[in-house]
Inverse folding.
């Protein structure tokens, strides 16, 4: 096979996978399995939605208390914990215990002690109210069955004036457009403050009104 044919075949297989997953996800809750972590931790993701870039967009500072909602194995949690430092705290929430086990192993290997891992479904009402300066929701929204309830819970978990920084990346099978994110966020009581990137990979910063 020529290199061009290999590239075309790769693109077709990826497209079929994304479309198939998107269709299945309409019928059932299908959170990203650990077998697909290569979709998150690769050079393309690093370029368009790398952890340090997302932390800068959200204005994360030492001493802050931050929620990493749908943390996965900790792609963001580890740099977040390093940035907020010993005076700050990170609460990392995920639905799947397999993700939290991987996160725990990474935290131990980095000797980070300012992260609390919590197994919870976003929207189930388990987050502490009025606690966080910042919250992250990175390529998670489309995986949540009741998105409005999850966004309302995150808004209540922020301090007044606190910011949810939400990122979506195409072709994530659960990708949500900027318009639908905006509509949902406003229905959940957020105020849109800033947007970065293009439709292929964007971040919106959403504030809990004072
Ligand atoms: C695509 S991964 C993104 C992980 C991480 N945010 C990142 O950017 O590397 C989505 C994660 O959200 C979690 N998730 C999906 N639905 C959830 C829910 N309702 N409550 C909590 N976590 C959820 C999944 O288990 C998975 O680990």
């Amino acid at each position: 096979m020529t290199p061009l044919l290999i590239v075309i075949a790769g693109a077709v297989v990826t497209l079929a996978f994304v479309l198939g997953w998107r269709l299945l996800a309409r019928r059932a809750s299908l959170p990203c399995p650990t077998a697909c972590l290569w979709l998150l931790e690769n050079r393309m993701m690093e370029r368009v939605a790398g952890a340090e870039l997302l932390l800068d967009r959200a204005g994360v500072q030492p001493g802050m208390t931050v929620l990493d909602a749908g943390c996965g194995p900790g792609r963001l949690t580890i740099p977040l914990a390093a940035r907020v430092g010993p005076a700050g705290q990170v609460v990392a929430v995920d639905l799947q215990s397999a993700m939290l086990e991987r996160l725990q192993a990474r935290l131990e290997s980095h000797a980070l002690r300012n992260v609390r891992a919590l197994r919870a479904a976003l929207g189930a009402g388990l987050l502490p109210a009025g606690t966080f300066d910042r919250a992250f929701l990175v390529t998670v929204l489309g995986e949540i069955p009741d998105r409005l309830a999850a966004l309302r819970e995150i808004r209540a978990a922020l301090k007044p004036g606190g910011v949810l920084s939400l990122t979506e990346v195409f072709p994530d099978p659960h990708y949500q457009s900027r318009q639908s994110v905006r509509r949902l966020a406003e229905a959940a009581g957020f105020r849109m403050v800033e947007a970065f990137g293009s439709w292929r990979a964007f971040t919106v910063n959403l504030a809990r009104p004072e």
Notes: The radius of gyration is 17 Å.
